[in-house]
Amino acid sequence: IRTAFFLWLTCYRGRLYYCARHSFAVNVLTKGANIKTVSSLLGHTSIKMTERYLHVVDSLKQDAIDSLGEINYAPM
Length: 76
Hints:
mainly alpha
């Protein structure tokens, strides 16, 4: 809740446009869109500009892996 409040406060202080773009990019990437497609949708001239949104998606992937807990493999 604290993080959401600070995000809202930052957006409220004149960064609404940036926050909307960021939310759009992260949501589309989370749903599995290709980074080149997202880059085009955002109007970026380089994929490097779009890569800054990937850290959120990468952390979501890591959270999913961590939720598995310890996996014990039995030898075959």
